[in-house]
Specification:
Shape: elongated
Distance between the termini: 25 Å
Number of helices: 28
Number of strands: 20
Strand content: 15-25%
Length: about 775
């Protein structure tokens, strides 16, 4: 059972490690390599005539609506596009203006069943209700985050956006697997010239080629490490079982030696026993592990990978079994016939004592019993300690993580709710112009006054940023932060060089470099460098302004995603000739969060240009991201603990069976049942005490060091704060004591079933 379980776990873990990237790569290979953005239908039709193109996906985002406090994106897409995005559907895609395909969760929110052909009423933000015939169900699970996708007909998309819509065409190349990104770019540009498509409308998707060539060595090392730890735990158990088995069979081996069996034959016999057990356990484990690996990542299953892993894990498991029984085999072969006849499993070199007599107590007997066979005792304690240390270490990392701190550090520097302009929030709104939304002045004073008048709202905070394009030292990109006077104190805490003085920056057209983000994007700049910025003004014109880098900070805590530059909001508003607010944070009383959330949803309901995020959603998201990897490690640690308990049970029972005659002799010379119970309890407590001591010292110590290491490696993201895992340790000790109690009950119950004479006459 131990061999099978270890083989199953190792193969499942390794298959999962290979399966996840394989699944990602499979999904990625279905996606397009080239995108022609907003081209005419005539140009798009020419793509179908190209021999190098395998498939063409058509996509157009028509409009979005706020329906029942959720954002619904109405898009047109053909079957090839949906397949490439792993968006399966049942039924038929819409062809008429009044036909639609939606998610089942969206139907649930409207109170409809999933029956195809029915008419559903969808209320739009302008108060109108539109009737659609349901032609299909889209199998995409996104309703839990408040966003839905609806597939509409091309006819309705043209009606909403005008007859001459610019459709996006996604291209899948026939020979993409064997192409480099440069070759794909060359083909895309050549074809664009033939079809008179502007260079600005040609996109080569680097993610396809980067993922194809990505080095996953570190990920695989992680999974192999988990598997190795699992097998170390099982290897100790296998070693202990064989060691005890050989010790209990020494007399049999001695009898075989007396009738002519050689040492080599004894070795072969024990090795054959190990091979037979491995031949039974390993295949069973591999079959179970392969099934587990497939069920964990069905889309990442590949027969060649599975075959390689099966062979590799099988050989590794066999090697572990052979190494585990190597020492017991030597022990079996080294015993002479005469030694075997008088062999006791508890023989060993004992220290000579000068004392003429000793006090024999249950505690002293328990101590001597463990010390007579130190190897077995040490192995059992190490096995228990290994599992305990892993459980305590991983539990420490889990409970030391603070999801609220990460949510605060990344998205909610202040407040519990963020009301944002709906640009760059999702795949559907990635190309929505933030400056275009800011021209509408949606985050105006009336909105802020309405928010601040709500019961439980204690204040608001404006955050500034825009999607202006900047250029510095031959590097160009989009998006810039704006900061208010009250943000200067935070910037000063992260100041590396220069100044963040608000007045000085405004008077000298200064801008601040965010070092951490710049390094991640390989942007090289220093104090004094000029930054050219193209802003979109309220009038719809593009103007260029020049700024000087006057300060460098490590980080700027902001609810928007990471950007490289920040400037005073006065300069940004002046350049754009409008308010460049992108987010309003709402600060509330914690006990009124639920009612405030409902009021805020009602306030922005019907306006698809505004979306709201909550700190609770953010905490849940970040906590789940941490729980998944550490949860997987914790499962492995628990499995190692199970191995150690198997070892403890095996050691305790075999010790008891080999000592029944000895215990009978002690009872014959006056050992009472109460003293016997105490002796067995002391033996169990000694195992538990030593294992607990090692678990506490190593587990707690390593847990503290790991938390400190994470904080040192990520000084700007201090989301770990050491917490002592009291509950986990107490639970581990409780289970350990419970196992010991069961074992003591078993051994004493077994003794009660036999008379003293029967015990003394037992011959192992």
């Amino acid at each position: 059972m131990t061999i099978a379980l270890a083989s199953a776990l190792l193969s499942a873990i390794v298959l999962y490690g290979f399966g996840v990237p394989q699944e990602t790569q499979k999904l990625n290979q279905k996606t397009a390599q080239i995108v022609y953005h907003a081209i005419s239908e005539q140009q798009g039709q020419e793509l179908y005539n190209q021999e190098e193109i395998a498939w063409v996906g058509k996509f157009f985002h028509a409009f979005s609506e706020e329906i029942n406090h959720s954002t619904v994106h109405f898009t047109y897409a053909n079957a090839a596009m949906l397949k490439s995005q792993s968006m399966p559907y049942s039924g038929d895609l819409p062809t008429a203006e009044d036909e639609i395909v939606v998610q089942e969760s969206f139907l649930d929110s409207l109170g409809y069943s999933n029956e195809l052909g029915q008419t559903i009423n969808i209320p739009f933000s302008d108060g109108t209700i539109h009737d659609f015939k349901l032609t299909g169900i889209l199998d995409v699970k996104t309703g839990d985050i408040g966003r839905y996708t609806a597939i509409i007909s091309k006819e309705l998309a043209e009606q909403q956006a005008g007859n001459k819509i610019g459709m996006d065409y996604y291209i899948g190349l026939k020979n993409a697997k064997n192409m480099s990104e440069e070759e794909a770019a060359s083909y895309a540009n050549t074809l664009a010239q033939q079809l008179e498509i502007s260079d600005d409308n040609v996109i080569v998707r680097s993610t396809y080629f980067n993922l194809k060539d990505e080095n996953r060595g570190s990920d695989m090392l992680f999974y192999f490490l988990i598997g190795f730890i699992t097998f170390v735990g099982s290897g100790i158990v296998i070693y202990s079982i064989f060691y005890i088995s050989v010790a209990n069979s020494i007399r049999n081996y001695g009898q075989l030696r007396t009738i002519g069996t050689t040492k080599r034959q004894i070795k072969k016999m024990v090795y054959r026993e190990g091979k037979l057990l491995a031949a039974i356990g390993i295949p069973i484990g591999l079959v179970i592990g392969n099934v587990m690996g497939y069920l964990l990542v069905p889309d990442g299953w590949y027969w060649l990978t599975t075959l390689s892993v099966t062979v590799g894990v099988g050989l590794f498991a066999f090697m572990i079994v052979m190494l585990s029984i190597r020492t017991p085999v030597k022990k079996a072969a080294a015993v002479s016939p005469m030694e075997a006849l008088r062999y006791s499993d508890y023989q060993g070199k004992m220290k000579e004592s000068s004392a003429l007599h000793r006090n024999i107590t249950p505690a002293s007997l328990a101590k001597r019993n463990l010390s007579r066979q130190k190897t077995k005792s040490i192995l059992t304690i190490l096995s228990l300690s290994l599992g305990g240390v892993l459980v305590v270490l991983i539990s420490t990392m889990l409970i030391s993580y603070d999801g609220a701190a990460e949510a605060r550090g990344r998205e909610f520097p202040v407040g519990e709710f963020n009301i944002q302009l709906n640009a760059n929030q999702s795949w559907d709104t990635a190309d929505v112009s933030l400056a275009g939304l800011q021209q509408k002045n949606l985050l105006n004073a009336d909105l802020v006054n309405a928010i601040e008048s709500m019961d439980g709202v204690t204040g608001t905070k404006r955050w500034y940023y825009t999607d202006a394009e900047y250029r510095v030292n031959d590097y160009d990109d989009n998006w810039i932060y704006g900061f208010a006077k009250e943000d200067v104190s935070v910037l000063k805490e992260n100041l590396i060089a220069g100044t963040v003085d608000h007045h000085e920056l405004v008077s000298k057209n200064g801008i601040i470099l965010i070092k951490d983000t710049a390094e991640n994007l390989s942007l090289s700049a220093q104090l004094g460098d000029k930054v050219e910025v193209d802003f979109l003004t309220k009038a719809g014109q593009t103007i260029t302004k020049s700024y000087t880098i006057m300060g460098i900070v490590t980080n700027f805590s902001h609810p928007a995603f990471n950007m490289c530059f920040a400037m005073p909001e006065e300069l940004m508003n002046e350049a754009c000739e409008m308010d460049c607010s992108g987010t309003i944070s709402v600060i509330t009383e914690t006990d009124k969060a639920d009612t405030i959330e409902a009021s805020l949803n009602q306030l922005i309901d019907g306006n698809s240009d505004l979306v709201m995020d909550t700190i609770e959603e953010s905490i849940t998201y970040y906590s789940r991201n941490q729980q998944l990897p550490f949860g997987a490690l914790l499962i492995v640690a628990i499995i190692v603990v199970c191995f150690s308990f198997i070892n403890l049970v095996n050691t305790t029972i075999t010790n008891f069976l080999s000592r029944r005659q000895e215990i009978g002799m002690l009872q014959a010379i006056g050992l009472s049942k109460k003293q016997l119970m105490k002796m067995l309890c002391y033996e169990g407590m000694l195992y538990s005490a030593f294992a607990t001591l090692v678990t506490l010292l190593l587990g707690v110590g390593l847990g503290f060091l790991c938390v400190q290491a994470v904080k040192t490696m990520n000084p700007m993201n201090p989301y770990f704060d050491y917490s002592f895992p009291w509950l986990v340790i107490l639970l581990y000790l409780a289970i350990l004591l419970m196992v010991q109690f069961i074992l003591i009950s078993y051994t004493t119950g077994s003794l009660r079933k036999q008379s003293l004479v029967e015990q003394i006459r037992v011959v192992e």
